[in-house]
Amino acid sequence: MSLEFLWYIPNQVEAGHRGDTVAADHNSLDTLTAQALALEEYGWKGALLGAGWGRPDTFTVATALAARTTGFEPLIAIRPGYWRPANFASAAATLDQLSGGRVRINIVSGKDDLAAYGESEEDQARRYGRTKEFLQIVRRLWTRERVTYRGEHYRVTDSTVAPRITPREGRPHPPLYFGGASEAAERVAATEADVQLFWGEPLDGVRERIERLRALGAELGREHPPLEFGLRITTLVRDTTEQAWADAEAKVASMAESAGARRNSHGASGVGQQRLLDLAARGEVLDDNLYTTPGRFGGGGAGTTWLVGSAEDVAKSLRKYRDLGITHFVLSDTPYLPEIQRQGSQLLPLLVD
Predict the structure, then answer these.
(1) pTM flag (> 0.90)
(2) pLDDT tens per residue, range 182-222
(3) How far apart are CA 288 and CA 52, in angstroms?
(4) Which of 84, 316, 323, 353 has the fewest CB atoms in 10 Å of its CB?
(5) Distance in angstroms (rounded) separating the CA atoms of residues 186 and 182
(6) pLDDT, tens digit, for every residue of 66-99?
């Protein structure tokens, strides 16, 4: 089973994301390029770039990094609503051609400041209905010519994207990653996505979701190649197990102090976030080394459960996810650049055949 390992580039206006130590020019092109070049040097496939209103435009950042690298593959998070499907399909096809086929796309349907860019809030059913149409149109524009589509949310007439996507071995077009834990999200993933990206849940939860999504795809008549699965998780790696846990607990203590009275006051805004927040009730450490406590202070979002230990400890846990069917891994820890290097030299050699 071929595995792919990506990192995470934060793409934030404010410095100090999740304890990153870079302050001056933290989001400059030189700083982000240094991370992308280190990812190439240490054997990573690429990196996820986060998206959301109030952050630098993700597609622009990805384009700049692709221009400064030769092998780095940006996993570009984008939102239906912020983009219209035909405009996005054209932009992504252009970048894919210019970069030699290095584009990956992560479709995000979670809540955002929609009114800031002219959209209105929709209930969950309509939000995921829109996402489904977005995915269908983008895939058709990448693989067909003279596309006409009439949906509830989007329409295109006699539309052909230029330049055309160049199919590559095992890759007819940029892969479409997708997240979401609600029933509505899973129905979209089961039929329309290429890769379902999970957050860091225990093995039993991931196993159950993989089984359900595979069954759902068969039930709904999935028309594409089999759905693949990915894991987005923080990996805190140190030379020894003891040092890793000491550093993890110190980080959480600092997070708790910073959170103060705001601890958990925000609640969860989605099913996936609530699932992570609920894990802490099962125990601070699940499976062998899945640390749930950070989610109590970090908001219950992506990367707020951690695999903690030596490189051997963390590799053993990641192999267990692989055995369930996970083939795409998006890892990270802070400070970002030193951890790209540490985990690239210590962890990846234990996982890459």
Answers:
(1) yes
(2) 999 999 999 999 999 999 999 999 999 999 999 999 999 99
(3) 33
(4) 353
(5) 6
(6) 999 999 999 999 999 889 999 999 999 999 999 9
